[in-house]
Specification:
133 residues; alpha+beta; two-stranded antiparallel sheet; 2 strands; 11% strand
Length: 133
């Protein structure tokens, strides 16, 4: 049985290689979540992933004359990538928004508290978007 990390270590290069074979440029960056980010508890701020190993960033390069099909293809690749690592993924980072992801993916267990705070400081809902708590 694979340990946590082994599945990810095998899946990430395979995802990028499959994309490269199709002639499109994509990559994934792993940013370690170490140092000062761990100085606070996961519920101290909106960012709940303070005790996780790393943050992943999916990158897709588009030519200047890209099409709607190319955008959909990129979204499909990112969705496939998420599915491939789902068992080892905790959520998402709000500074790297992805269409269609639920807010709970970005804020985890902090979402309920953040919504309560928002209702107190912005009762009329002046500040709103699809990604607003």
């Amino acid at each position: 049985m694979a340990t946590i990390g082994e599945t990810m270590a095998q899946a990430l290069p395979a995802l990028v290689e499959r994309r490269a074979v199709s002639g499109t440029v994509s990559s994934v960056t792993l940013d370690p979540l170490t140092g000062a980010v761990t100085d606070f508890s996961p519920d101290a701020t909106a960012f709940p992933w303070r005790h996780h190993l790393a943050e992943l960033q999916w990158h897709v390069r588009f030519p200047s004359d890209f099409s709607a099909e190319a955008v959909q293809d990129a979204r499909d690749w990112v969705n496939t990538a998420h599915q491939a690592i789902e068992s080892e993924s905790a959520g998402a980072y709000v500074n790297r928004l992805e269409p269609g992801r639920p807010l709970a993916d970005y804020y985890g267990a902090n979402l309920v508290r953040l919504r309560r705070i928002k209702s107190n400081v912005d009762p009329s809902g002046f500040f709103r978007s699809p990604y607003t708590v």
